[in-house]
Give the backbone structure.
Amino acid sequence: MANKEGDNSLYPIAVLIDELRNDDVQLRLNSIRKLSTIALALGEERTRSELLPFLTDTLDDDDEVLWALAEQLGDKDFVVFVGGPSYSYTLLPPLESLATVEETVVRDKAVESLRAVSQQITKAHMEEHFVPMIRRLANGEWFTSRTSACGLFSVAYPSCSDATKQELIQIYRNLTSDDTPMVRRAAAGKLGEFAKALEPENLKQHLILMFHNLANDEQDSVRLLAVEACSFIANLLEKEDVEQFVIPTLTSAAKDKSWRVRYMVADKFTELQKAVGPELTKTNLVHAFASLLKDPEAEVRAASSNRLKEFCTSLGEEYRSEAILTQLMPCIKQLACDANQHVKSALASVIMGLSPIMGKDNTIEHLLPLFLIQLKDECPEVRLNIISSLESVNKVIGISQLSQSLLPAIVELAEDNKWRVRLAIIEYMPLLAEQLGVTVFEEKLNELCMQWLVDSVYAIREAATVNLRHLVEKFGSDWARVAILPKVLGMAQNPSYLHRMTTLFSVNLLVEVCSSEVVQVSMLPVVLRLAQDPVANVRFNAAKTLNRLCQKMDGSVVKEVIPCLDTLLKDDDVDVRYFAEETMNTVKAQES
Amino acid sequence: MAMAGLRTGEIPWCFSQVKGTIEDEVTDADIISTVEFNHDGEFLATGDKGGRVVIFQRDSTKGKASVSSPPMFRCDYNVYSTFQSHEPEFDYLKSLEIEEKINQISWVKHSGSSLFLLTTNDKTIKLWKISERCRRYNNLNTITDEGQVKDQSSITQLKIPQKCVEEITVEALPRRIFSNAHTYHINSISVNSDGATYLSADDLRINVWHLENTDQSFNIVDIKPANMEELTEVITASVFHPINCNEFIYSSSKGTIRLCDMREKALCDQHSKSFEEPEDPANKSFFSEIIASISDIKFSHSGRYILSRDYLTVKVWDVNMESKPVEVYPVHDFLRSRLCALYENDSIFDRFECGWNGDDSKVITGTYNNFFRIFDRSLKEDYCYEASRDMTTLGLTLRHKRVTPTGRKRKDEVNVDSLDFSRKILHAAWHPRDNILAIAATNNLYLFHEQQP
C-alpha cells in the first residue's frame, strides 16, 4: 500500500476541484484563485485536455467568479501549467468565451488577459489560433463579443503576414460601421491603439477613412469617442497630414451640434494641442478654443475654462501674449461674470495661473480687475478658488494690490454659515499668512484664527488647532508665545469643558513646534491645572497631553509631573487612571 | 363558420391562453400593473401590485421547421421565471410607505444568453439578470453521484466534475439597484437606443442613468416651480426615441407632448418641439383638464409617429407636425356625457395605456368592461373585443362587441348603463412582429393570436 500516503495528499486538491462548483460563491472564488495549484496537480496534459474545456463549458457563474477566472488565465505564470508558450493557445477558448459575457467588467478583464496571453503566443499560433478567434468574436451574434474583438487587433496585427493584416483592417472597418452603436463606440475607443500598430501607408490609406466615418457617426456617443482618437492619430502623422486629415475633423467636432461632443473637445483640448503641434495650434486651435469658451452650454464653458491655463502655457511664446490678449481675453472677461457658478469657479481655479505668463503690466491691466470681481463673487467656491491660488499672482505683482479686496473676502468666508466653507478657508490660512507677512496677519487675521478655536463645529475647532501649528512653524516659537499662547491657554479657564479641551488639543500640536522653554514655562502649569479639572474627559486628556510634554522637557522638570500623575492614578475614572499610567511609564522610561 | 362575422381586412383573433387564477375573488397583490414584450417578442414580462415579475417564454417546442412541414405558428407562452422584484418599504425620514407595486418594466436589448430588464416601483429602479444555470454536477471527487460522501482513502485519482444537463434552473439576480434619485413617484423608465443609458421620469423630473452606474444620474428635465403653489402640470410619461439616441419625449397632465434633444443642452428644460392641440372652447367643461391629461405615450417602431392616450381618445401625432394630431380615435365617446359619475367614482383618473402593432399600421388600447379596441389606421376601421373567460374555447374567433347608448340589448351588445367599471383593461401589448396580443385584465393575463389558416 505504498500508494496510501500519496492518495491522502490528493485530498486537499480533490476538495479544491469540487469546490469549483460549490453552492457557496466564496468557496468557488477561493478555488478559482488557486487554479494554478489545481493545474499543477493535474499536470499539463490533463489541464489542457480536461480542466480548460471544463472551465470553458461552465460560464454560467457569478460575475465575480468569472472575473477571477479571467484574471487567473491571463496571469503570465499560468502558461507554465499548460506546457509553456507552445501550448499557450490552449488558454484562448475559455478566455474567448469570457470575452462574450454580458457583464462589462468580466469582458474587459478577459480582453486584458487575452492581450497578455498574446505576448506569449508563438508567431505561427498567432495566425493559426489568435486571428481566427478575432474573426469569430468580430462576427459574433451578440454585440458583446464584437465589442471585445475591438481590443485585440492592436496586439495581433504586428506579428501577422501582409495578407492577414489586410484582412484584419477589413474586419476592423466592418466593426466601425456595425449596426449597434455599442460596437461602433468600442471601435472608436480602440482606434487610437490600432492606429499605433499600423504601418504609415495603411494608416493613411485605411485608418483615416474609418476615423472620418466614426467622427461623422449619426450617434453623438460615437462621435465623441472619435475626438479621443484624434490626438492619438495626430501624434502618428506628419504635420502636413495632420493638417489635411485631422484638423478639419477637429474643427468640426468643436462646432458639433451635440454639446457632449464639444464638451469632449474642450476636455481633451490640451492633449489635442500637444498632438497637433504649436504651428497648427496657432492657425487653427486658438480660434476653436475661443469659441468653446463662449459655448452656449455651461458644461462646455466650464470644461474649457479648466483647460485655460494649460492651453495658454503651452502656446508658442512668439505669439502667446498676442493670442491671449486679442482672442482669449474677451472670452475670459465674459466668463468672470458668467451666469453659471460652475463656470465661474472653474475659471477662478485657473485664472491666477495666467499671471506669470502675461507679465506684470498685463496682469495689472487685464487680470487684476477680474480677480477683484471674482473675489466679490456671491458664490463662496469662486472666492475660495481665487484665494487658493494667490501664490502665483503674488510672485508677479505682489499681494498689496489685492489685499484691500482680499481681506474682506477672507473675513466673509471665515464667517460663512456653511462650516465646510469655513473649513476650506482655514486650510489656506498658513499660505495666506506667508503671502501677507506677519504684520498684516497679526493686524487682520490672527483674531479670526482665535475665533475658530471656539467654533461651534468640532471639525472647525480641530482644523483651527492644526492651523495654529502651521502658523507657528512659519512665524516661530517666540511669536507663538506672544501672539497665540495667551489666548489658547486662557481658554483653560473657560466654563465650557469643550473649550478647555481645545486648549489641550492645541497644546498637543504646538508642543512639537515650540521651544522647550516655552513648553516648560507657559504650557506645563496650565496642563497641570487641567489635570485637576472636575470633568473626567478633561483630566484624561490632560494626562495624555502630559505624556507629550514630558518627551519635550528636561529630566528635572519631568519630576514635577510625578505628584500630579500620582493623584491621577488614584482617580475614580478608569480612563483617567489608564492614561495616567501610560504617561507614568513614559516618565519612568525617561528617568532610566 | 367562425369567420363569418369578419369585416374585410380584419384580423381573425382567437384565444390562446389565460394566465392567473380563475376564481372570482381578486387579491389586490395579484392585479397586473404592467405588460411588456421584449424586443424580439420571444419573452413577455408582467409586473403586479405585489411587486412580483413573471417572465413568459414563447413556446419553443413547436417552432422547429422540418423538411416536410413549415414551422408552426407559436402562440403559447410558458412561465420562464417568477421573482419578487420589489418589497414594501418604509421611508423613515419622510414617514412614507413605499408600495412594492411594479410601475413599469423596460427590457434591455439582448447581449448574450441572459435576459436583462429594468423594473421600477415608485422610488427604486432595479436591473435584473435572468439566466440559466446548471446547479448540479456529477463526477465529483469527494461526493458520489448519489450524494454520498466518499471515504478519503478511496480517492486515488483526481476527477473533473461534469455538468448535469437535466438540472438547469432559471435564476433572476438583481444586478444593480438605482435608488435615491426621485423625490416624486416614478411613472416611466425607458432604455435608450445607445444601449448604455436609460431615463426615469417622476411627476416633476426626468433623470438619465448609465446602466452600469448606480451612484449617479443626471437631471435632464425639471419642471418643478420655485413655489409649489404655482404648479400647473406634472409629467405623466416619458420615453426615448427608438433610433435617435439623443431624442426623448414626455407627456404632461395638460395634454402636451414635448420632444427634447439632448444634444442641444445638458438640461433639456427648453423643448425642441411641443405637440399640443388647441382646446376647442365649445367642449370646455369642468372636466376638460382632467380628460386632457395624457396617460401613456409610445413612439412608433419607425420613430416617425407618436401615439398618445388620454381619457377618451388615442391620438397619432406626426413628429413633423406639432399643431395637431394626424389621427384621433375615440375609445369610448359614449362616456363623455357621464364624466360626472366617472369623476365621483374616481374612474376618470384611470391611466389607460396604448400600443402599436409590429408595422405601426394598427394601434391597441383598453377600455371598461374588459373591452379593448384595435384601430386600423389605413382602413380607418375600429374593432372592439372582450377579454373574457367565457371566450376561452381554443380556436374560437373573437366576436365584435358593441356598447349601445340605450334600448334593447342584442347578442354582443352592452348597454352603457350596465358597463362594469371595475373590470377595465389598462395594459395591453402587441407582439413586436407577429399578431399576438397580451391583455391584462385585473389579475388575469389573456393572450390572443391571429387564427392560422
